[in-house]
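PROTEIN SPECIFICATION:
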Amino acid sequence: MMDVRFGNITPTPRSELYDWLTENSYFVQKVPDYLDRVTAWSDEPVYFTPEISADEIKRAFKYGQRVRNEVLKKAFVRKMGRLGFAARIMAPLVFSQRSMDTIMSSKALLKLAEKVWRK
């Protein structure tokens, strides 16, 4: 396994989920403004249900992010095994939130990361 993601189910207008959330006033974000801001990978809850509160959803997203980071670090160590112990030291640095944000916002770094990752 190289990556795993957990995220929002985004209710879209005229869907069964959207209608149910609207009828029961379960949205925590302004409708339909959230459609411009929220993606499947956002960590901001769009709604709650009787079974799970918005705070619990937010905690679940954070837990999912921690799981993803661990999977990415382990995949990095496996992929970069030729670096030996250095791969274990580098993995937490490479997959820190700051590093990931920097890589994802730079086309050049993203291309380099993809090139290295595919080797």
User: Anything to note?
Assistant: The chain is about 55% helix and 0% strand. The chain has a mean pLDDT of 83.
